[in-house]
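Quick note —
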Amino acid sequence: MLSKSNHFKLKLSFQSMYALMAKCEELSTNIRPVYQLADQMYPFIQTSNVFEEMQFDIFFSAKFHIFHRKMLRLKYTKPANPVRNFCMQKLAAPP
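Predicted structure written out below.
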């Protein structure tokens, strides 16, 4: 048999648990529009990701072309190094 103080603590514990469950249920019903909004935003997020990838590719492609142009300029200004000449020929040759 439970004492009065333990019985009161147990009753309070159950009340708190049910109050918390009611608040969670209320929160889940109130958050439904947020999920619907997220579903509507998904195509925009996908498009944004595509543009980010394109920007990344363009940036590194431009960096490579700048590097390649610098290397080609080195080929014509300093042709004395045979290793560099060989590397430049390999870089300039189409794949």
